[in-house]
Amino acid sequence: MKHIIGGNQAPASPRAKLIQVDEESAGQRLDNFLIRHLKGVPKTHVYRIIRSGEVRVNKGRAAADTRVAGGDQVRVPPVRESDSAAERLARPAPAREFAVLFEDEHLIAIDKPAGVAVHGGSGVSFGVIEQLRQARPEARFLELVHRLDRETSGILLIAKKRSALLALQEQFRQRETGKTYLALVCGVWPARNKVIDLPLHKYLQADGERRVRVVAADDPDGMRAITLVRLAQRLGDCSLLEVTIKTGRTHQIRVHLAWQGHPIAGDDKYGDFERNKILQKQGLRRMFLHAWRLQFAHPASGERIELHAELPPELNLFIATLTPPGPKT
User: Fold this and answer.
1) For the chain, which domains are there?
2) Catalytic: which of 111, 149, 267, 272?
3) Catalytic residue at 197?
4) What is the chain's mean pLDDT, rounded?
5) Which tens digit of pLDDT belongs to each residue from 12-34?
6) Would the pTM count as exceeding 0.90?
7) Hey, how many other C-beta atoms are within 10 angstroms of the C-beta on 293?
8) pLDDT value for 65
9) Which of 133, 138, 150, 215 could lock onto 222 through a cystine, CB 3.0 to 4.6 A?
10) Is residue 49 within 8 Å of 55, Cβ to Cβ?
């Protein structure tokens, strides 16, 4: 039955809504919880309403990295969603499986291809997690343990149980995991440069795009970030690096390497844009950053697991163009 608003009546103002945290969402960061529930709302807006204090958890202000608990009441101000629930249901993410590196009843480790977001949001309709849920409708629980940038390929962990999610996320928080990437950088990396310990600050540009920069050690907004670098191979005027991160800051590897004067090849945010054009003509059509090795304790057994995702074919092919030919026989 339709209710018609009379000419002298103002339309009702949109009201804030309360979302109760269920047990499966317990332990999630507040920003991730809201991004999942506010489909169609840009992530930049989600962070804005958190920072402004308009989002309340149990009537109190909370930060983006606050962990929500089962039964918490999250108050969300009126927000405009670009898609209605009906429209989203009419356009579900296409089902897709990904190359599996490890799987049991607790977790899945996949080899994420470059160009695929890990989840929907900020102009991306869907990502790995939405596609995997569509491909596995029988799965009762599938949640991302951590993130990779859209243009980064390699190992991505997905929990199949809430207990596994919480245990693995705690390992990441406590820096008990070992995360090593392969990165090709422009220029010859000095082998003596093995540790980068520079604080990072995350900010939004005027257009709402998220960026990160190195700040002074005494900057109150700086977050400590530690990156370990090992020169694996020199390839002409480029260097292949093994990069291990001891902290998991946004864009940490990309910003740290660029700040050292050796941006990642193909990086469209922090890279050498003129050099990227040349590299593209040589065949590099993505950022050369790959999550190569991951070490962690199994969330149930405690067994130490080490996973490897070899370089994808397109990066191996590009390396071949840089490798000098061997001696003639």
Assistant:
1) 15-83 (3.10.290.10), 92-167 (3.30.2350.10), 174-322 (3.30.2350.10)
2) 149
3) no
4) 88
5) 456 888 888 877 677 888 988 88
6) no
7) 18
8) 87
9) 215
10) yes
